[in-house]
Amino acid sequence: MSSKSLAVVTAETMAACGVTAPLDAADGLAVTSPVTAEVVATLVPHSAAEAEAMIAKADAAFRKWRMIPAPRRGELVRLFAEELRQSKEDLGRMVSIEAGKSPSEGQGEVQEMIDICDFAVGLSRQLYGLTIATERPGHRMMETWHPLGVVGIITAFNFPCAPWCWNAALALVCGDPVVWKPSEKTPLTALAVQAVLDRALARFGDDAPEGLSQVLVGGPELGEALVDSPKVALISATGSTRMGRIVGPKVAARFGRCILELGGNNAGIVCPSADLDMTLRAVAFGAMGTAGQRCTTMRRLFVHEAVYDQLVPALKKAYASVTVGNPLETAALVGPLIDKAAYDGMLVALEEARALGGTVHGGERAPEVSNSAYYVHPALVEMPEQAGPVLRETFAPILYVMKYSDFDEVLEQHNAVGGGLSSSIFTTDLREMETFLSARGSDCGIANVNIGTSGAEIGGAFGGEKETGGGRESGSDAWRAYMRRATNTINYSKDLPLAQGVVFDID
Ligand code: NAD
């Protein structure tokens, strides 16, 4: 494939996914692959009027889709999963081209879509409500879950398709149409996913209304169109905390519902009893995998003084030897940063760390791979204390390492940042493990033992606390956010007893 330009490979891959729209508009939204810094397509973005029309179409689709029985809605998602299995390689390649992930990680993202579809198919027969004991004789009380309305899904560049599917697969079985505003950096994967879904829709037949799933191509202003529309019942927005600070209050102001999946500042704690070989591998993947561009990337590591001199030299060795390279042509473990802004952000953070007494290992650009694209050697930074850039998320492969001596103090340090997404402890000590998972332990939405901070499975609800936004999507009971709950009380007696024993007798 190295003989072909990436634009040609992109066009071929898009065609294999079933995309028929032209990828070569004269001007518009240029899509640049971080792999080579080549413009691989130029799309015509949607206008504000088109966004409004799409939302109206989705609203009309809701009126029909909500009346289709949920198990039948699940059948559409089952067919979609079949189509995804057929297109896994092509979609995975699109993820690699647009986001710079290795083929294994690109296809892993598609596998995650398949997994959540399978979950949603089962869910389509399990949208249970409770039956609740009432205090009134001859009465029955229960909860019913109904479809909510149009779901607006805004996604980030670093996971171009899986988070959409965490939302869309659940939304579709719950009876909700979806309108997707993907990152302006990765619209091609979204168009390819929609084309694959269109194949499932064609097989599904007339029960699916037009406008059940649509893609809005463009920048933040189109995300704002979703956010501001009273026709969009739920906004699920994945991206930076900066974006969440704008989106959250806007949706709240119109009493809309909002799932925020924002940035994290994830940490690991390595205790004296840790299995250090396992820890080394878990930290290497967690901190360097996907070039540090996962929301769950490990960014801080607290190492007990008793094992610091064993673990940290081994980590430095791993950092010095990790392979950096073109993910489409080599088996390198670390691919490119998304763009120059990401590289500049990394440089600023490393400079700040040095000024605070940090010792930086690695972190240089890798011109041997490319002079135009932004490949870097991951950086391990030994810090005297948690300060400055350590307190925020820099979306690049930087791991700040700090020494600790007291377990209670390190728990305080662990929780003393804005992000609350993912966390890990490496220990074989039962007391440390349970304390980390207890009410006074990690304050994150994800707390792991003896595995890294990244690589969550779809079965659990995914999301985090504090500046990560508090949202949950994917597995467990996250589906409830996509439905509205009605409490129903039925009186089958001949009397009218009032709750709380209230008396209101009229003759
Ligand atoms: P970003 O915030 O720049 O953009 C994310 C999306 O929001 C894009 O589609 C963008 O167009 C849209 N957007 C931006 N401003 C908007 C506004 N005012 N109104 C409506 N939409 C708006 O984020 P990014 O650089 O694409 O992604 C990286 C960030 O995303 C990191 O902080 C990472 O931690 C976070 N992230 C979080 C999760 C999670 O599940 N918690 C998952 C992936 C990425």
UniProtKB/TrEMBL annotation:
Entry keyword annotation includes NAD? yes
Extract the InterPro entries matched here. Ald_DH/histidinol_DH (IPR016161), Ald_DH_C (IPR016163), Ald_DH_CS_GLU (IPR029510), Ald_DH_N (IPR016162), Aldehyde_DH_dom (IPR015590), ALDH7A1-like (IPR044638)
Q: What is its EC number?
A: 1.2.1.3
For this UniProt record, the keywords arranged alphabetically read as follows: NAD, Oxidoreductase
Keyword Mitochondrion assigned: no
Could you name the domain of life of the organism this protein comes from? Bacteria
Q: Name one Pfam family in it.
A: Aldedh
Task: Please state every residue range assigned to the domain named Aldehyde dehydrogenase.
Answer: 29-485
Q: Where are the active-site residues found? A: 261
- SUPFAM superfamilies xrefs: ALDH-like (SSF53720)
Instruction: Give the PROSITE patterns listed for this entry.
Output: ALDEHYDE_DEHYDR_GLU
The record's similarity note reads: Belongs to the aldehyde dehydrogenase family.
Q: How does it assemble?
A: Homotetramer.
What is the name attached to this protein's record?
A: aldehyde dehydrogenase (NAD(+))
